[in-house]
């Protein structure tokens, strides 16, 4: 084959002159594209993160043991067990953009206040008794509640009861770390308000359907709502399924109700880097096979079923968490009614115009 007719991607012949050229590249910190284009620009995403499932039955006892042995306070700041994706070289990242952790607070313990650039939320799969105090506003945490701590808001937690409590934390730590955008600042060594109101100030302002306070007419980057309560989520999901029963199947996918938590000032996602949803599948429903650019994390809130992640298959029980890396095919089958909390990096992918998906048997 003539030199000009060599197929695309063929490497040059090794010669003393080429070796000298490469040595010059190395001296001047140059890395030629032709030696790495397959890694830098693959034909489709090839994530280093791998699909993985963590059992709540394993996680919670470890969190309890940490509660006995590890203090919470300045220095460590939080008793949080980061879920490290086995494909990401020992980092406590569940995906390249997302962090997920089990946080555990013992009876009458306080996690001191601090703030950071990273956006954060909490989702409670079981338990009650902790208040998270966000910019001085005590917000009750209960089962099924989704709670926000947008970036650069002071926040701490206090347990007002004689029982411990655990929940999941979700943050955009890996994304902010890789892009060098993080700031951190200590706040009070305790929390600024030990009150235990049933309803927070942010909820009294913002959680009335279709109503917006005149004092909040300017749009905000993140949602001003401190807690999205389970009673509203549950009612919305049941309402969708009821409409289906009444003959309005176009309102939802068959047997699959779902909601997205939104920022009421914009109608968009609750935070600029994280999307959060809740899904309810009737018994026997199997979702379509799907691939998506970006990563998602699911936690089983109630019920049982199975998830297919690429070539892997896992049974699902309450509290189990699993991660779906970019472009890994997945589908979920509900054996009983199956409730799932989901969060993802979709806002990042959409704003940067990287979002892509495929749905169906050939996805």
Based on the model shown, name its key terms.
single chain, 363 residues, alpha+beta, Jelly Rolls, 3 domains, 6-stranded antiparallel beta sheet, 7 helices, globular, RmlC_Cupin_sf, dioxygenase
Overview of this protein structure:
- This is Gentisate 1,2-dioxygenase.
- InterPro entries: Cupin_2, GDO-like, RmlC-like_jellyroll, RmlC_Cupin_sf.
- It comes from Devosia yakushimensis.
- Residues 103-169 form the Cupin type-2 domain.
- Keywords: Dioxygenase, Oxidoreductase.
- This protein has seven helices and 22 strands.
- The chain is of the alpha+beta class and 363 residues long.
- The chain folds into three domains: 1-43, no CATH class; 52-216, Jelly Rolls (Sandwich), CATH 2.60.120; 228-359, Sandwich (Jelly Rolls), CATH 2.60.120.10.
- The strands form five sheets. It has a six-stranded antiparallel beta sheet with strand order 1-19-16-21-14-13. A six-stranded antiparallel beta sheet has the order 2-3-10-5-8-12.
- The radius of gyration is 23 Å and the shape is globular.
């Amino acid at each position: 084959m003539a030199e000009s007719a060599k197929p695309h991607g063929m490497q040059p012949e090794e010669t003393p002159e080429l070796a000298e050229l490469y040595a010059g590249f190395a001296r001047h910190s140059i890395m030629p594209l032709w030696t790495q284009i397959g890694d830098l620009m693959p034909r489709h995403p090839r994530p280093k993160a791998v699909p993985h499932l963590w059992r709540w039955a394993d996680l919670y006892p470890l969190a309890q043991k940490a509660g006995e042995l590890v203090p919470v306070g300045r220095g460590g700041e939080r008793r949080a067990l980061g879920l490290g994706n086995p494909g990401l070289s020992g980092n406590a990242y569940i995906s390249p953009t997302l962090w997920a952790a089990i946080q555990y607070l013992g009876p009458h313990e306080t996690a001191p206040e601090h703030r950071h650039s990273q956006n954060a939320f909490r989702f409670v799969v079981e338990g009650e008794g902790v208040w998270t105090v966000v910019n001085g506003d005590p917000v009750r945490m209960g089962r099924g509640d989704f709670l926000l701590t947008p970036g650069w808001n002071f926040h701490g937690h206090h347990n007002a009861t004689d029982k411990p409590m655990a929940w999941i934390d979700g943050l955009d730590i890996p994304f902010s770390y890789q892009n060098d955008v993080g700031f951190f600042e200590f706040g009070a060594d305790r929390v600024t308000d030990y009150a235990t109101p049933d309803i927070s100030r942010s909820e009294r302002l913002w959680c009335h359907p279709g109503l917006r306070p005149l004092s909040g007419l300017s749009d905000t980057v993140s949602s001003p709502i401190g807690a999205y309560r389970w009673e509203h989520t549950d009612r919305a999901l049941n309402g969708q399924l009821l409409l289906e029963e009444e003959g309005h199947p176009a309102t939802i996918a068959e047997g699959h109700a779902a909601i997205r938590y939104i920022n009421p000032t914009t109608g968009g996602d609750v935070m600029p880097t994280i999307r959060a949803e809740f899904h309810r599948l009737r018994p026997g429903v199997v979702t379509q096979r799907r691939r998506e650019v970006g990563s998602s994390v699911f936690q089983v809130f109630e019920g049982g079923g199975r998830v297919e992640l690429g070539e892997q298959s896992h049974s699902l029980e309450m509290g189990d968490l699993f991660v779906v890396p970019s472009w890994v095919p997945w589908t979920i089958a509900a054996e009983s009614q199956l409730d799932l909390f989901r969060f993802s990096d979709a806002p990042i992918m959409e704003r940067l115009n990287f979002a892509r998906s495929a749905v169906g048997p050939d996805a």
